[in-house]
Amino acid sequence: MLAGRRIVxxxxxxxxxxxxxxxxxxxxxxxxxxxxxxxxxAERFIGKVxxxxxxxxxxxxxxxxxxxxxxxxxxxxxxxxxxxAPATARVLGAYxxxxxxxxxxxxxxxxxxxxxxxxxxxxxxxxxxxxxxNIATLRRRGVHxxxxxxxxxxxxxxxxxxxxxxxxxxxxxERVLATGHDFAGVRVLVTAGGTREPIDPVRFIxxxxxxxxxxxxxEVAHQRGAHVTLITTVDRAVTAGIAVERVETAADxxxxxxxxxxxxxxxxxAAAVADFRPxxxxxxxIKKGEGVPEVVLEPTPDILAGxxxxxxxxxxxxxxxxxxxxxxxxxxxxxxxxRLDLIVANDVSAPGAxxxxxxxxxxxxxxxxxxxxxxxxxxxQVASVVLDAVAARLxxxxx
Length: 399
Ligand code: CTP
Hints:
By secondary structure, the protein is of the alpha/beta class. Helix content is about 35%, strand content about 25%. The protein contains 14 helices and 19 strands. It has helices at about 15-30, 40-45, 50-55, 70-80, 90-95, 105-110, 125, 130-140, 165-180, 210-225, 250-260, 305-310, 325-335, 380-395, and strands at about 5-10, 35-40, 80-85, 115-120, 145, 150, 160, 185-190, 195-200, 205, 225-230, 245, 265-270, 275-280, 295-300, 315-325, 340-345, 360-365, 370-380. The strands form five sheets. Strands 12-11-8-13-16-17-18-19 form an eight-stranded mixed beta sheet, sandwiched between helices. A five-stranded parallel beta sheet has the order 2-1-3-4-5, with helices on both faces. It has a two-stranded antiparallel ribbon with strand order 6-7. α13 (about 325-335) links the parallel β16 and β17 (about 340-345). α10 packs across α14. The longest helix is centred in the middle third of the chain and has 15 residues, at about 165-180. The radius of gyration is 24 Å and the shape is elongated. The two termini are about 15 Å apart. Cytidine-5'-triphosphate binds near residues 269, 302, 319, 321 and 322. Cytidine-5'-triphosphate (CTP) binds near residues 250, 269, 273, 300 and 322.
């Protein structure tokens, strides 16, 4: 897995920098091309020459090397993975805030490769809310965090914050590279958010969907190498490289999906599409003085059922079942009725799950009868598990 892979090893300034030497040695022994990048403070703990003796590539410490203009973009673009071990509170904070002040922080912003950070610091710093919030922000963005261990720290202190063992770090890098690009060349269409069906120019029928789960699918699929098109009713920050189409109603969404569905290898219908809409939206605002209006509803088209009818051979269709009772049974029924490959059953009334939360707990049911329980976790993790199931169902591609 590591042989021939290009790894940028960022080393920042903490006592654990000496362990980066061991991480470097293990990666090189496994056949990786390792380019160390040391911060100024790292050089106070270990010498550049120590890493130079072990690394397969040049050790860099500065943005300002005349022989190599703009090294951060070169390093960032050429990397299969960037690992920061140890990652200090300062580097984590800069990365979370999008700041670049040296070669390492610039490389972190200039890369699209997966990033693994291995924090190491004193327990008080590790547990500080600012550091924990930065870690949560990075996790949400898809950065892989190798949690520090509990143990002996600098100055004889004990507690959480000790850099993970080099073997654990190398195993994490291997894992990231293994799932890294399994969607390379795969076209994934994702819908996100709840549709809004107008009653008049100022009012609509909507639902509580925040779009977070759909965006998590788009981000994780993109990170795993897919070409992603995201059709969404909500505006959330999204990584450049994901094609976004903004829609409002079920009819808009149906039209946008129809434009892309033919070429998509995978379709994830995470959007909460209204089942009914006002038959005729008023052209002007309905006034209170005119009495209580009667809003007559009509059904919207079932986008997913339509996709199933036109499904191409090898295309993988993923639906969602947002339920409040009989979750598994209702989802299994939808899976069969809409002729899907996978359905993500979501008890939206469970604590911490469903609409608006950052976390979710789901059961993934497959047409072949298999099922997988995903207990309460980050929505990106839910997306990862579902995409693993999708990957297993994609037709084998040459190479
Ligand atoms: N869906 C769709 N078009 C609709 C309604 C739903 O494509 N008009 C999709 C959703 O994106 C989701 C799946 O169908 O992936 C299930 O949606 P849900 O509303 O839970 O199912 P319904 O078919 O509406 O069934 P019910 O009303 O019985 O819950």
